[in-house]
Every structure is written in C-alpha cells, then in structure tokens.
Amino acid sequence: MTRKYVIDAVDKNLHASFSNAYEPILTVQSGDSVQCSTIDIGWGNNDKDGGRHEYSSREKEQAWGHPIIGPIGIEQTKPGLTLEVKINDIVPSWYGWNCAGGKWNWHNDQLGLVNAKQIKLDWVLDSSKMIASTSIEKQTFTVLFRPFMGVKRNAPKEAGVHSTIPPRYCGGNIDCKELV
Fold first, then answer.
1. How many CB atoms lie within 10 A of CB 98?
2. Which SUPFAM superfamilies does UniProt cross-reference here (predicted)?
3. Beta strand pairing status for 171-173 and 151-153?
4. Is 77 found in the same domain as 25?
5. pLDDT for res 82
6. pLDDT-flagged residues of the chain (< 70)
7. What are phi and psi for residue 125, nearest 5 degrees?
8. Do 176 and 110 share a domain, yes or no?
9. In terms of Cα–Cα distance, which of 27, 30, 25, 54 is closest to 42?
10. Cβ-defined contacts of 48-54 (< 8 Å, 24+)
C-alpha cells in the first residue's frame, strides 16, 4: 500500500547544504508520494498582507545555500542503486521575486551589473493561467512562466558538507527549464 506524506516548510525540515551524514526528516517506501511546501531563495515567504516570514536552517551552516526540504530517506536503498523520482506537479504560490545587480556573480558580471544598484522585481503569480505580473515606474509587465525544479539531488558519497550551488554527478542546483 502506498502512502502520501505532506512536509511543511518549517525550520526543522530545512537545510542549506548537502551531506550524507544528515538524518532524514522522513523515510518512505518505494512508490510512496511526498508533497513539499517550499520557501523562496531569500529564506522566506511573503503573505498577501505585506508581511514576511523568515526561516532558518536546522543545520546552522556558516555559508549561504539554497533552502532545501529534507533529506528524505527511502527504505531498502543503498549506494550504487539507481533511484527514480517522479515529479507530479510543481505548483507555484501567489508571489515571486527576482533581482539583478549590486554584487558579483557570473550573471551580473556578464551583464556589466556588478557595480550597479540592485534592482528587485516583485511578481504576482497566477498559477491557474501561468502568468506573472510586475509594475515598474507605473508600467505593468505580464509574462508567461513555467515553474521548474531548481535544486534536486542525492546525498554525495563523499563525507563532509557540500554547497548547494554547483551541479555535480549527484545533482545540485540544476536550474533546468526542461524539468517542468
């Protein structure tokens, strides 16, 4: 019999790095289903009243990393086995944001924005129509969007704490727009 689990985005379920030493927050059997709530890249969620809830990592990492739910263990798995994970749905919330400029990263460097003032766009998302809208200087822009998996991975075989940023043999920050 398959089971369905729901995991909320709360501090005890979040971490910002990968390690094969992290204890699972849940262990499932093959065929079970898991629904996860997530938070934004800034380690928070906005509410419609203008408030914001901030989260923190249970592992208390020193370096910044993507907020990740888990790990989730799977009974009867062991190193060397192939793992298949099916993503049924990616359902966005009502709000999203993005920014550019104001710090060094590859994108800002390529666009000449490292020393520019950071620009942040706040988007209102309509997941039934898959459109996002934002306003800049009294002008509204609407775009189509397709949510995708950003960070997904298996625990690395190497000991230690590993960054969420680079993709590698066991996954990571893949940001693959085809994984919709």
1. 12
2. Acetamidase/Formamidase-like (SSF141130)
3. antiparallel
4. yes
5. 86
6. none
7. -105, 135
8. no
9. 54
10. 48/94, 48/95
Using the structure block, give the residue that is written with the tokens 């960054």. 163
Residues 113 and 134 in one domain: yes
Instruction: Report the CATH number that the domain containing residue 36 is assigned in CATH.
Output: 2.60.120.580
Q: What are phi and psi of 12, to 5 degrees?
A: -70, -15
What is the tally of structural domains in the chain? 2
Task: Give pLDDT, residue 5.
Answer: 98
C-alpha pair distances (Å), 119 with each of 66, 101, 115: 21, 6, 12
Closest by CA to 24, choosing from 11, 13, 33, 10, is 13
- What is residue 61's predicted lDDT score, i.e. its pLDDT? 93
Q: Are residues 97 and 113 in the same domain?
A: yes
Q: Three-state SS string across 105-158, please?
A: CHHHHHHCCCCCCCEEEEEEEECCCCEEEEEECCEEEEEECCCCCCEEECCCCC
Q: Residue 49's closest CA among 85, 113, 94?
A: 94
Residue with tokens 């960070």, as numbered in its chain = 151
Are residues 62 and 10 both part of a single domain? Answer: yes
Co-location of 29 and 83 in the same domain = yes
| Under 8 Å between Cβ of 22 and 164 | no
Same structural domain, 132 and 66: no
For residues 83 and 160, state if they share a domain. Answer: yes
Neighbours of 150 (CB within 10 A): 16
Structural domain span for residue 136: 93-145
